[in-house]
Amino acid sequence: MDLSTGIRQVNDRQAYLASARRIVVKVGSNVLTTKDGLNLSIIKALSEDIHRLIEKRIEVVLVSSGAMASGQKKIGLDRRPDEIPKRQAIAAVGQAGLMNAYEHAFENYGQNVAQVLLTSDDLSGSRRRYLNARNTLYTLLAWRVLPIVNENDTVVVEEIKFGDNDNLSALITLMMNADILINLTDMDGLFTADPRKTKNAELIRDVVRIDKSIEKIAGEIPGALGTGGMRSKIRAARKVTAAGIPMMIANGKTHGILEKLFTGESSGTFFAPAKDKLSNRKCWIGFTVKPKGVIKIDEGASLAIRKHGKSLLAGGILDVSGDFGIGAPVELKDIKGLRLAVGLVNYSAGELRKIKGLKTAQIRARLGHKPYDEVIHRDNLTVLNPR
Which of 32, 53, 161, 317 has a CA between 20 and 30 Å from the CA of residue 182? Predict the structure, then answer.
């Protein structure tokens, strides 16, 4: 259907699925839990689906929600408490039950599983910790062990939260350089309106570009047990598709949904990727690290970076916000305040305030030294939405 310039029929979704050799599957709380606790029949069906993919030599990383919802029901609470210690305790109870359920389900196929609990700080805090996490996942896949990833809710605080598992699954997809992210929820995909409230809501099968119309639709479709909802799934799709990786939203309660997708059934919503796939390092810079400041650039610099793959020079800088050192990640924004890119700077915030607007040849005279011609070299710069 053609609701806007952001939606049209995409004919190559099956090509992406057919060529996929490493995938990330995210399954939400609304799929995995019922009013009585974990939905063991869904977990059993999901394990069968994933086992069949692994048998076809497709590497799978599973990002699983459900710990908080499971723990809440196991303890007998009718809602999540507001106090952080209680929420963390609930997660601890629920995570144990969740992993136990997965172990029992995958035992039927002789499939070993591994629990991997992460915080945002593990991926964005330092490049070393990021690489350690990635190497652990690579090793598990090489051993044909299924990694089951979740946020470490038992220790997480607001400063190191991923926000939700939709975001976590996007970051894992980028870190692992996966071929596709499949987000399983309790709906058939992205609809033109909330199908639980609107009878004539239509399924949007393909999204070529995530624009304001898509964001508006998603914002009107909230979640229930989980913390995400459709808006967080669109944010995840924006991340991975900008990096050149497609994403799908499909109904995890449909029996055999993964097999249906991989055998050609036109289910769910497909988000088409940007043309070029980013390197793992550029994904880390653009989508995982937390920027320490903002550099506002002029129209010429914006055009050079977005369209021509150029580095950022001092002459294109209009303003500098924040207090950061050499090598820190910073955001680049245009004159309208739109977020264009994230990069690692060669100069501190104080130095940049002194040299902004200057030609490269003038930097030494102003600072007394000139270690680099570029403020941010293009190799250390990730354009967030090249389309």
Answer: 161
In the chain, which residue ranges form alpha helices assigned H by DSSP?
13-19, 29-32, 40-55, 67-75, 84-107, 120-124, 127-142, 165-175, 212-219, 230-242, 257-262, 280-283, 299-308, 349-355, 363-367
For 369, the token pair is 């030294």
- Rounded Cα distance between 144 and 100, Å, is 19
Between helix 127-142 and helix 165-175 the angle, nearest 10°, is 80
DSSP string for residues in 338-377: -EEEEEE-SS-HHHHHHHTT--GGGHHHHHS--S-S-SB-
In the CATH scheme, what architecture does the domain 291-383 have? Roll (2.30)
Nearest residue to 216 via CA among 198, 240, 190, 242? 190
**What's the Cα-to-Cα distance from 72 to each of 33, 80, 81, 190, 299, rounded to whole Å?**
11, 7, 9, 28, 51
Res. 197 pLDDT band, cuts 50 70 90: confident
Start and end residues for every CATH 2.30.130.10 domain found in the chain: 291-383
Question: Is 287 in contact with 239 (CB distance < 8 Å)?
Answer: yes
Position 219: which residue type? G
Note the pTM of the prediction, 2 decimals.
0.84
pLDDT in tens, 297-328: 999 999 999 989 899 999 999 999 999 999 99
Nearest to residue 260, comparing CAs of 6, 87, 13?
13
The two three-digit tokens of residue 371, written as one number: 């270690």
For domain 13-278, the CATH architecture is 3-Layer(aba) Sandwich (3.40)
Contact 32, 66 (CB under 8 A): yes
Q: For residue 235, which amino acid is it?
A: R
Please give the pLDDT value at position 325. 94
295 and 333 Cβ atoms separated by less than 8 Å:
yes
Convert the pLDDT of each residue in 270-283 to its tens digit: 999 988 788 888 88
Measured distance CA(345)–CA(329) in Å, rounded: 7
